[in-house]
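Retro notes, structure queue

What went well: the backlog is down to a handful. What didn't: a couple of records were mislabeled last round, so from now on we paste the full input next to the output in the thread. Example, using Putative N-acetylmannosamine-6-phosphate 2-epimerase from Arthrobacter koreensis:
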Amino acid sequence: MLNLQTLRSSLIVSCQAYPGEPMRDPQTTAQVAQSAVIGGAAAVRVQGLSDIARVRSAVEVPIIGLWKDGHDGVFITPTLHHALACAGAGAHIVALDGTRRERPDGLSLAQTIASVHEGSNALVMADCGSAADAVAAAEAGADIIGTTLAGYTGERPKTDGPDLELLAEIAALDLGLPLIAEGRIHTPAQGRAALDAGAFAVVVGTAITHPATITGWFADALAP
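Corresponding output:
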């Protein structure tokens, strides 16, 4: 099983493209992941079964796999079926909605995590939106806590950058689990700030792997 200590203070790159975009292709995702690893990524986060499988064959670093199904509510690896499929596709860590909201299949978060542990060798990353989510996810048996959903569940305002206040709050709880910062980390300085706030590791996606958004930032800045 994966030794999570190898990811301490590391950069994890989220390699995802939105549906309908030119880069939305498993081979392209794998090439982006390879490039990220060359640049120093210690792990990658990948969405979709085909993408997970292709990336697994392309890189040797750990893969955090997820399956987005829908756009609202619980849609990040929303059911046990989705979670086991991600593990089966090659994810070393399965990222799933780790909030206290009702899950579509009616299972509790604890039941889902236990079944992933029993049915695969994968660890579970709980994508949380608040400190209360983090506590509940730790009690449910999660292996990793992430701040992925901070600002998206209605419990906290959406910050311009990473929610450093939430990171510090969860870190102070000393839950005994790696705390991964994710969400709106757009600069190296923000990544460093996330570590300083108590993060175990940092996930960066858009600012590294989404050309359309990055181009838009520059275009907006240069607009008259």
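Agreed that this is the format going forward. Reviewer comment attached to the example: The chain is about 40% helix and 15% strand.
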